[in-house]
Write a structure and sequence with these properties.
The chain is an alpha+beta fold. The protein contains six helices and four strands, in the order E-H-E-E-H-E-H-H-H-H. It has one domain (about 1-110): Alpha-Beta Plaits, CATH 3.30.70.20. About 20% of the residues are buried. One iron/sulfur cluster binds near residues 12 and 56.
Length: about 120
């Protein structure tokens, strides 16, 4: 569930507002997004993936955290934009698809039998 927007990092691109499929954000003062409807979050991580400056944190739980995280905690634990980093989005990062070894093609092709 979306937990945090860093107003320090945000560059007001409004991308997270546009890509969120359930309209969780409103634009606040200075075009910095506000988590206006956290309960509508689907934990899809799309906003975090699209944020160009790693200003968002989506926790991997469907329920809100019991204690709202602070920016200091998120920065110290390298959590802001951590999912985006995991999937390799962002300059200089290795895309997850490039290192994925899941044998997908073997699962969709028919089994080859020796004659
Ligand atoms: S995780 Fe998905 S549903 Fe939740 S705020 Fe981000 S884009 Fe919206
Ligand atoms: S995508 Fe990131 S930089 Fe852009 S408005 Fe949202 S939080 Fe700010």
């Amino acid at each position: 569930m979306i937990e945090f927007v860093s107003s320090d990092r945000c560059v007001q691109c409004t991308m997270c507002v546009k890509v969120c499929p359930t309209n969780v954000f409103d634009l606040g003062a200075n075009k910095i997004p506000i988590i206006a409807r956290q309960e509508d979050c689907q934990t899809c991580f799309i906003c975090e993936a699209y944020c160009p400056v790693d200003a968002l944190y989506v926790a991997p739980y469907a329920d809100p955290l019991e204690v709202a995280p602070t920016e200091e905690h998120l920065v110290d634990n390298h959590l802001l934009g951590s999912w985006r980093e995991t999937i390799g989005w962002g300059k200089g990062r290795i895309k997850l698809a490039a290192i994925d070894t899941t044998p997908f093609i073997d699962r969709i092709l028919p089994v080859r039998r020796l004659e």
